[in-house]
Amino acid sequence: MVKQVKAKKSLGQNFLTDQNIINKISESIKANSDDLIIEIGPGKGALTKKLKAKNSFLICYEIDLDLQEFLLPLENSKTKIIWQDILTSNIEEDIKNISYHNLYIVGNLPYYITTPIIKYLINLKLDVKEMIFMVQEEVANRFTALPRNKEYGSMTLFLQYYFQVEKLFKVSKNCFNPVPKVESAIIKMTKREKLPVVNKDNYFKIITDSFRMKRKTLKNNLSNYDFAKIKEILAKYGLEENIRAEEIPEEVFIEIVNNLNFDK
Fold this sequence. Notes:
Elements: E1 15-16, H1 19-27, E2 36-40, H2 46-52, E3 57-61, H3 68-71, E4 79-82, H4 91-95, E5 103-108, H5 114-123, E6 130-136, H6 137-143, H7 154-162, E7 163-171, E8 176-177, E9 184-191, H8 200-210, H9 218-221, H10 227-236, H11 250-259
Parallel strand pairs: 2-3, 2-5, 3-4, 5-6
Antiparallel strand pairs: 1-8, 6-9, 7-9
């Protein structure tokens, strides 16, 4: 008899129970038998079973030992459960002996640490083809926002530096047990074939400073920079100097960074 395991609020657990949504997530991952899938937070294994059927190499990171009864039976020569927090794991070490073609990362991320997990994965510099995540709908809107949208911000540009980010579909809160307070969405992050031609550290510094106080203009937020040069570039794109950062597209920020002197 399978024991009843209640979701732990402390771990941000909400178990996905809607089979249609589980199927749609699985179908969005086009992995083959020589690819590797990393699943973050497999829970009771609802999605894990679908991923395992792809016959790819599969590594799942789960922190809740109470879920062993559900997940241990899924292990085989190509599927491994690692009982560790993804944020303290050594993924490079865990996958070093696996000979795979493409790497996919998928997960129903705890909403209170969504951004830290994604930043952690990016900073590992893994050669990831795609990342498919369940996130809070509000977060999905922020990650996929376009300029002149209030959700557009520094995190939008940070992610879009590395990936093409798209919202695949919404997920009703009624698809979970227990039912969360917020609506969710599935996002897909596909690795950009070519990264923007710009100094990465300077670029991230500019976009962080530009959105430091969103209600203020770019001129106010970047008062410590050569704003005369920034004003020239804005004018080239038909943008006024009293513009806010949320109105500026990626290519303009890149040109600004490429024309400023950061050595002073």
